[in-house]
């Protein structure tokens, strides 16, 4: 009986330790990305904040990793109806970041791709709106929700406001240069994408813990179940 009572406490401590390790990893990754940005700016042969710059490649990598985490989380049964919304939004953002490459194939191709993704996502939302609403009520209570919304506001609100031409012209006056405005905006976008990546990692970690916890519960129930002893051959012969 004492072992049974200690199981939740031990599991809670293990979960806390894993969470702290993940957040330390987020801190180190953020610092590494910032340092990588600095190193990339020292290389004169790479155009600064172009489509092939470090910032753009890092944004693409963060979005692709986020999609992979969401895919794995949904496969383990976490928020089966809500995760496709996040997936659709991030997939559209990934396509938007590749606008120059897609437009080189067909004019406005990225817009058609984003429109198709939006159509599928909206259709899914309308069809499963009640189940999505229930899952949203649970998702709001998780740390992943705060991370994701922080990244969302950073990318789609704060970076746009901070990247306004008028703002930086007012700040710098005659010393205004477009690359300063572009650098601030793109760097803020990258930070927002990293926050959303961390949210997706948290969802994937939550899905893994729940999946492993379900297996552990099943094993404990099976271990505690009374065993049925069949009569031995000797007992049957004696009978």
From TrEMBL:
Q: What organism is listed for this UniProt entry? A: Larsenimonas rhizosphaerae
User: What is this protein identified as?
Assistant: Uncharacterized protein
Keyword tags? Membrane, Transmembrane, Transmembrane helix
Domain of life per record: Bacteria
Lineage runs: Bacteria, Pseudomonadati, Pseudomonadota, Gammaproteobacteria, Oceanospirillales
Membrane-crossing residue ranges in chain numbering: 20-41, 53-71, 78-97, 109-127, 139-158
């Amino acid at each position: 009986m004492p072992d049974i009572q200690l199981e939740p406490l031990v599991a809670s401590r293990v979960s806390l330790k894993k969470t702290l390790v993940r957040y330390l990893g987020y801190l180190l990754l953020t610092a590494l990305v910032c340092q990588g940005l600095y190193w990339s700016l020292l290389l004169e042969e790479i155009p600064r904040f172009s489509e092939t710059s470090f910032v753009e490649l890092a944004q693409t990598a963060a979005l692709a990793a986020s999609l992979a985490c969401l895919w794995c989380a949904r496969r383990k049964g976490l928020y089966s109806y809500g995760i496709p919304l996040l997936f659709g939004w991030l997939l559209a953002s990934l396509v938007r970041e590749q606008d120059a490459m897609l437009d080189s194939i067909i004019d406005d191709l990225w817009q058609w791709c984003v429109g198709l993704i939006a159509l599928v996502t909206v259709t899914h939302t309308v069809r499963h709106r009640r189940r999505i609403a229930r899952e949203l009520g649970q998702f709001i209570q998780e740390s992943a929700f705060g991370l994701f919304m922080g990244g969302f506001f950073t990318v789609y609100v704060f970076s746009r406001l901070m990247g306004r031409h008028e703002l930086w012209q007012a700040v710098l006056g005659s010393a205004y240069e477009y690359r300063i405005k572009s650098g601030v905006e793109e760097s803020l976008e990258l930070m927002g994408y990293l926050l959303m990546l961390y949210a997706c990692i948290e969802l994937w970690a939550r899905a893994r813990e729940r999946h492993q916890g379900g297996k552990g519960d099943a094993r404990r129930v099976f271990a505690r179940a009374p065993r049925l002893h069949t009569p031995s051959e000797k007992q049957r012969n004696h009978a």
